[in-house]
Amino acid sequence: MLHQKLQTLEQLWIQKQGTEIYHQLYNATTQISGQGTIQLFSGQSELLELVQSLLEHAETAKLELVSYSQPSPEIILSWANWHLQARDLA
Q1: Is pTM, for the whole model, over 0.85?
Q2: Which of 49, 55, 65, 74 would you label with 13, given CA atoms 20 to 30 Å apart?
């Protein structure tokens, strides 16, 4: 199920559907951090802004699911790597 969702997200990326990407991946309690940064993104407005910024600066995205666990039916803890192809700005 999770792998299918990642494929859907890659298609939404191509279509530049930032709001739908947010709704497919996150909710109001989601917290995201990235490798090499101490910044924590949380809440709908911060996460939407992050997704929109990534959409603006990257041509394509491939999501690699590294690991996940589901401690309850409502919660999935995951580690996913986003591989982004930078948009040619020239």
Answers
A1: no
A2: 74
Q: Exposed, middle or buried: residue 13 (CB in 10 Å: 0-12, 13-18, 19+)?
A: buried
Nearest CA-CA partner of 84 in 65, 68, 61: 61
Burial string for 15-31 (b: 16+ CB within 10 Å, else e) reads eebbeebbeebbeeeee
| Nearest residue to 3 via CA among 83, 51, 65 | 65
Phi, psi at residue 60, to the nearest 5°?
-135, 160
Half-sphere exposure of 83 (CA within 13 A, CB side): 6
Helix axes 18-25, 44-57, angle to 10 degrees: 130
Q: Encode pLDDT of 48-59 as tens digits.
A: 999 999 888 888
- Where do the domains of the chain lie, and which CATH numbers do they carry? 1-86 (3.10.450.50)
- One-letter amino acid for residue 72 of the chain: S
